[in-house]
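Minutes, project check-in

Agenda point 3 was the complex the collaborators sent over. CS summarized: two entities, 656 residues total, and the question is how they sit relative to each other. Sequences were read into the notes so everyone works from the same version.
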Amino acid sequence: MPFILPGFIDAHVHIESCMLIPSEFARLAVVHGTVATVSDPHEIANVCGMKGIEYMIENGKTVPFKFYFGAPSCVPATTFETAGAIIDVNDVNDLMRRDEIKYLSEMMNFPGVLSGDEEVLQKMAAAKKANKPVDGHAPGLRGEDAKKYIDAGISTDHECFTKEEALDKLQHGMKIIIREGSAAKNFEALIELLHHHPDKIMFCSDDKHPDSLMDGHINELCARAVAKGIDVFHVLKAACVNPVEHYKLDVGLLKEGDAADFILVKDLEKFEVIQTYINGELVAEDGKTLVVRRQTSDNLPLNNFNCTKKKVEDFAVPFSIHHSSLTVIEALDGQLITNKILVEPKIENGKIITDVENDILKIVVVNRYNNAPIAKAFIKNFGLKHGAIASSVAHDSHNIVGVGVDDESLCEAVNLVIEEKGGIGIAGIGLTPNPASSVPQGGKVHTQPLPVNECGIDNEFLNSGELCGSEALSPGGLGWALPLPVAGLMSIEDGYVVAEKYKAIDAAAKELGSKLSSPFMTLSFMALLVIPHLKLSDKGLFDGDGFTFVCACSHKPNFI
Amino acid sequence: MIIQGNLVDIENRKIYPGEIIVENGKIVSVTERPHLPLSIPQGEKGHAQPLLNQDAKKYTASSKSEESELTIPPWGVGPPGLCLLFSPVLSMRMFI
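CS then shared the predicted structure for the full assembly.
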């Protein structure tokens, strides 16, 4: 007989990161036994404000899935970047009165908490008044500062990346949400904590790309935890019970009188899901979603995108004879944090250019809300040998971030995103020495026909094999974009189609030379100023440790 | 709607054969059914025993593992057709 257990809950997720609107996210998630999410609409709030939050709530109501949302606490995330909206204290108070809002979401302004910033304290007070918890976000915070942060009333953190940091926070009474997303992966570092702290651990994805959601969700983490010898009841407490109790969710836990939210799995090792029920309705069976796709008739999706196309010369970085070293962002695969390194600049025709041989590429952030000068810097570890990639998914303000080997490709990739009013773009594909089957040929992208039945969808698009959002010939090769018309963050297409498109563009980025496991996900965090150590905002290069801007060109002679 | 299977009681750390009855989107009853074909060990009187984690890890719905202590095939005893009676989907339809 199958095993019947409560459904899985993602205890902290930005739905927008899947590039899917909530109704499509649900269609993919239920297949893996997920029945609810504790969702933070922080991304769309940064772009569209309260209208964006309303959109997420209302769209989520159109499908049989339990979306619970938080009130974004930090919009804009910092004053060092240009965002599309502000969520102020009055907005938070309004949101806290709503039943759909279960908590104040990640308080990432931990310096504000520690210094007693008035607005921060008022937002937290609004949550306390509504008897709703406050989520944390304090990567690396330890010792007395961590205690002060927790004592202020912040009860969870999903940003721990070492066991020691998590233990420190646990000892001060905080609950730890173990994150395993498409870019940030902390499972291996933290899972052993579940042996001794089963009441204080939850699981989350935080940011998960569509291809990854198609493959698995919280069920995967359960299987991995059990494989590591963690008590299966501890694992299920983290995956099913703790989020319900902490956030006071109306999700059933297999008790009389509960909502009929449960799953049938083949075993308690791999957690292969046979059926998923939400409110007694069968929503997934044998790997196929039964959630009906909601067609949108919205010809003008909610968005906030006002910049115009750029010119190649806008991307140049002039060299000054005073520049003796270059401050470079070092991206780390599987991490949101970056390192700061110094390198010798490569000069050509009075400009600092990329050094492909040493993997020093150019990174830009383009203000999407207004026409403004482009912020430029250099970055290591993206590994591109040709072309460029760009995206309007760029935490937290979601301007356009791009990385490339030359200004022509960068301009092309950025302009593809601008042309679509949001999306992810790639340029220079035709230059790859060994183009993969997923790389566009002759102006079209072709893939093998999908096993449609396995996906549980029937989409002529997939059968056609044509995979092209938009296309354009760049000076040195092909470029194309995956359009994300809702806030420049989400597609309105079938979630499975988006996942396949994303796989193709991800593969194309790797064909350009990137060795990162998820180049676009890593790219999207290179403008995330609240995570140290060095990031690029639309206003300039930013030191996340000192919370201040720094100059990309230094006079220090200590090269690496 | 009635659904049968090995119920996982996370709070009380036990797994037992049973059924849940669902009406109007709510669980109206959760009942232990010791007579159901088991994929977990039987007690002396045929009642399901609470499973320790170590045991729970061993048992699967289609377990053929040598380490499993199954004495009854996971999908029931008797001719193959009878096994269908214990299919959760079929059971559910019968009771709707």
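Noted in discussion: The helical segments of chain B are 53-58, 80-85, 88-95.
Follow-up: revisit at the next meeting once the mutant set is ready.
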